[in-house]
Amino acid sequence: MRLAILLALVLTAAQAGAATVVIPDSVDFYTDGQAQIGSHQLAVYQESTLNDHTSFFFDSEFDPLTSIPVLKNLGVNLDEGSDWYLVRKGDSFTPQAIASGTFLRLVGPGPTSITSATIDPSYWSNWPIPGVDPFPLQNWQTSFYLGFATSLGFEDFPERDIYGWVELQFYPYPFPSLPPNRLRLLGSATAFDSGGIVIGSLQAVPEPSSLLIAAMGLLACGCRRRTA
What's one Pfam family here (predicted)? Predict the structure, then answer.
């Protein structure tokens, strides 16, 4: 009997989380004159069929003296829109973490005065180690992450249920000896109908409802065992 109860609860929890779909390389990047507005455009999809999308527009510059990039002239489409944050690889990017102010908001819900954002070294992956890599401009493997949240539908600005990330990298063009003056997309992922995503991975964060069902299942099993 206990096995039957446990199986039923596990199946129920699985069904609750089955709608979550994580798709890699699901963000389109336009640059070098291809962007509709500004120098760069990141188009994120609001359906797992990758039909409908909304975009984030921005310009960028790279200081050759400090090796610090800056994103500026930030903006998004005025439809369902999308919210963008500066994040790090391994972050659990969830609405709870967003609401607590864990991440620097670039563009998001409500009024914001941010028009530019400096990507300081703490946000870079493979950042040169002081004293070991004395010439940061020669290390072209640095990259950084942005997290985004969006949703499908216009009514009353529905809560976000689509979360994802992009990994961007500055690189030198057209010659390796030049400072990194171009920006490219290295990777991305989008979790649809989810409670968040782990930055830099394909791991979705379960929605609170799924976690509640799982917790109720464990509690029920414990109670059943004590009364057996």
Answer: PEP-CTERM
